[in-house]
Inverse folding.
């Protein structure tokens, strides 16, 4: 169950990272509300995952999910460049996440 909490926490991390762009410096009410709720849910679910998972692995996976998702949404929503180098770096993060899950004790 902790891995599910961690995965969903990572999704909410993507939500608040992308949401920050829409808040325009927290001047837009509803995007700011969504971003704040996403932040709270992300950290709360991270806390639940940490009850049974090691902190190093948990934090690395959480930030990795957030980083990968935010880059992908940046490309899709904000027309950020989709370069081969960027996707290579995403693949390295993904390999690291999978590796940490496999060696988790």
């Amino acid at each position: 169950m902790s891995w599910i909490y961690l995965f969903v926490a990572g999704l909410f991390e993507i939500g608040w990272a992308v949401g920050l762009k829409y808040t325009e410096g927290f001047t837009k009410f509803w995007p700011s509300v969504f971003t704040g709720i996403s932040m709270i849910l992300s950290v709360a679910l991270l806390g639940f995952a940490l009850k049974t998972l090691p902190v190093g692995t948990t934090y690395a996976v959480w930030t990795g999910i957030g980083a990968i998702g935010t880059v992908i949404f940046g490309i899709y929503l904000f027309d950020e460049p989709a370069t081969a180098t960027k996707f290579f770096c995403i693949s390295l993060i993904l390999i690291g996440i999978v590796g940490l899950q496999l060696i988790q004790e």
